[in-house]
């Protein structure tokens, strides 16, 4: 009985089942990932989520790829908060995925917008010109990587640029 309840306690949790106040870390890929790449990542994402620990204590975490472009790692801090060492472990995991996929997850100079069903990127240094040219509008749907809860990811992401830090450009 003890083994069974322990196994259930540490089973993989789908991202959508994390509490809305769960902390998230968002990593934007430098290119769109293929469906085959995402499918091949699922076991690694689940294993990382189940095995991620803080000071030897399991974290209640989940990891998912959104819009074929964003790796989002979430953790229910009501159960356990990650330590500096566990944050380092998550960064090492993301760097392993970079090598596996030949992609960068740490380039913060590209801003992502949803255009139809496609994620389009604009270099940060070209945002002002994009706004002035009318390419980026107040209602353009922006993937704000500064949000920090699972509820925001699931309910408010992407959101109109005018409701994010980009509002200063309008």
Salient structural properties:
alpha+beta, 32% helix, three-stranded antiparallel sheet, 22% strand, 2 domains, 9 strands, four-stranded antiparallel sheet, 170 residues
Explain this structure to me?
This protein has 170 residues and is an alpha+beta fold. It folds into two domains: 21-101; 110-169, no CATH class. It is 32% helix and 22% strand. Strands 7-6-8-9 form a four-stranded antiparallel beta sheet, with no helix packed on it. A three-stranded antiparallel beta sheet has the order 1-5-4. The longest helix has 18 residues, at 84-101. The model is unreliable at 1-9 (pLDDT under 50).
- Strand adjacency order, main sheet: 7-6-8-9
> How many structural units, i.e. domains?
2
* SS element count, helices: 5
Strand residue percentage: 15-25%
Distance between the termini: 60 Å
What is the helix content?
Answer: 25-40%
Q: Please give the radius of gyration in angstroms.
A: 17 Å
Mean model confidence by pLDDT: 89
């Amino acid at each position: 009985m003890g083994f069974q309840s322990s196994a259930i306690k540490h089973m993989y949790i789908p991202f959508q089942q994390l509490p809305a106040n769960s902390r998230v870390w968002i990593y934007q890929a430098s290119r769109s990932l293929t469906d085959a790449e995402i499918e091949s990542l699922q076991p690694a994402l689940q294993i990382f989520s189940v095995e991620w620990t803080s000071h030897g204590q399991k974290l209640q975490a989940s990891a998912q790829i959104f819009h074929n472009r964003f790796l989002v790692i979430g953790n229910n801090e009501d159960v356990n908060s990650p330590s500096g060492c566990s944050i380092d472990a998550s960064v090492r995991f993301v760097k392993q995925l970079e090598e596996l996929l030949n992609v960068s997850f740490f380039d913060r100079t590209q801003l992502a917008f949803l255009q139809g069903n496609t994620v389009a990127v604009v270099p940060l240094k070209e945002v002002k010109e994009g706004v002035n040219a009318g390419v980026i509008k107040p209602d353009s749907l922006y993937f704000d990587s500064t949000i920090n809860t699972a509820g925001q990811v699931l309910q408010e992401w992407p959101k109109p640029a005018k409701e994010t830090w980009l509002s200063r450009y309008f």
